[in-house]
Every structure is written in structure tokens, then in C-alpha cells.
Amino acid sequence: MGVAIVLRPRRLGRLLAADAMNIARDPMLLFAVGLSLVPSVALALFRGQLDAAAVSSFGIAEFSRFVVPLALMIPAMLIGWVTGFLLLEDRDEGLIAALAVTPVGKVGYLGYRVAATALVTGAVTAMATLLLLPRAGWFQQALLVALVACEAVLAAVVLPAVARNKVEGLAVTKLSNLAGAVPLLAILATPWRLVAGIVPSFWIGELLGLSSGPSLPFPLTVALAVGTHLAAVVLLFRLFARRLA
């Protein structure tokens, strides 16, 4: 019931407006949101120059395809970080506990936060895939949008789930940001790269076909990508629920 109330147009508009004001008052949060648009646009504009420089300097052809996972993941980490700190603030100020006795409830509040984070990240990622992966099929593009949006949700929930305050939140952010580089492990040709598959973001690199070695069948890769992301979301939400108990 709480989620349905929150997603009503008028209430959703008010919540989005309140979040926009909170972000606008904090230069760091505002900078993070604006910066999320930069990687994909910059790579699209300078992809040719980057590839030419990599060939002349290191003899690496199509170097930009190894940068694509980073261009997709950086916005997810940034947007997730913004949401995570908003969650930390609301938890520390007792707002989430206060919402438990309102029609919105904790579930409605978290549903709004997750939905807003996923939608904003999904929009940014959809733009990025059109710019950076124009020849990819619609299914691959849609799957990448969904998985990267899920990465933003994970980056958001891990902060209040693990950190007890904002100081710990900054430390957790530094560790969680490493997940943004994990897709690059898919470059390795050895089957041992699949060990990194326990980290959900690895499968984004695998779906982009970065490795020159043998790959898993595509349906199995999709199943593992979706499964690891869903498992991580469930785990972090359970940890977060314990923090709120």
C-alpha cells in the first residue's frame, strides 16, 4: 500500500521536488548528479581520437571498447552514491522511523528511493548505450540498462546497510566504487576470470564481450548476470532492514 501511495503523481512530484532541493543545496551532491552525464558524452565525442592515440602509443586497436564499461558504471556509482547519502541522512535524522506510522510507511519510502534511483540511472544508461553501442541489439541494450540501474540501487543501499554514519559512509563508498572497475576483469582470456562473477558488475563486462577467450553461452551469461544482481539486492535490503529495526 505504501508504494502505491508514494507513486501517485502528486505525491511523487512533491517527493522529487524535495529531493531536488536537497541536492541543489549540497554542491557535492549536485556535482555528482551533473557529472553522471559526462562519461558517455565525452567518450562518444572523442572515441576516434582515443582509439588513434592508443594504436600509435601502445598498438592497441579499438581501445575505447574497454572504456565503455567504465562510462556505463560511473554514472551508476555517482547516482547511487547520492541516493545512499540521502538515505543515510534520513535514517540518522529519524525520518524513516517517523514514516513508519504514516500511510507511506518505510516500504513506500524505500520503494520511492529505489524507483527514483533506477529510473534516473536507466535514463542516463539508455542515452549512453545509444551513443556508445549503436550496433548492439535492442535486447542487449535493454539488459544493460536494467543491470546498470540495478548497480545504482546496490550502490545506494550498501551505504545505509553497512555504514553507521556519514564518516563510515565515505569509507564504504570508496570500497563500493571498486565494483565500477570489476567489469574490466572480463578482458582476461583465462576461464579464471569467471571467479570474479561473484561480483554482480563483472557480468556487465562479460555481456559486452571484452574477452578474446572462450565465453559462456549467451543465455547462461544473461541468467548469471540477472541472478547475481537480484541476489545482491535481496541481501543488501535485508541488511538495511536490520539497521532500521
Structure, explained:
The chain has 245 residues and is mainly α. It has one domain (2-244). Helix content is 73%, strand content 0%. The chain has eleven helices and no strands. It has helices spanning 2-6, 9-25, 27-35, 38-58, 68-92, 95-99, 105-132, 138-162, 166-176, 202-207, 218-244. The mean pLDDT is 85.
In short:
This protein is an all-alpha fold. It is built from eleven helices and no strands.
Task: Furnish the topology, listing elements before pairings.
Elements: H1 2-6, H2 9-25, H3 27-35, H4 38-58, H5 68-92, H6 95-99, H7 105-132, H8 138-162, H9 166-176, H10 202-207, H11 218-244
Helix pairs in contact: 3-5, 4-5, 4-7, 5-7, 5-8, 5-9, 7-8, 8-9, 8-11
Shape summary: globular
Residue-averaged pLDDT:
85
Number of domains: 1
The helix count comes to: 11
SSE sequence, one letter per element: HHHHHHHHHHH
What descriptive keywords fit this protein?
single chain, 245 residues, mainly alpha
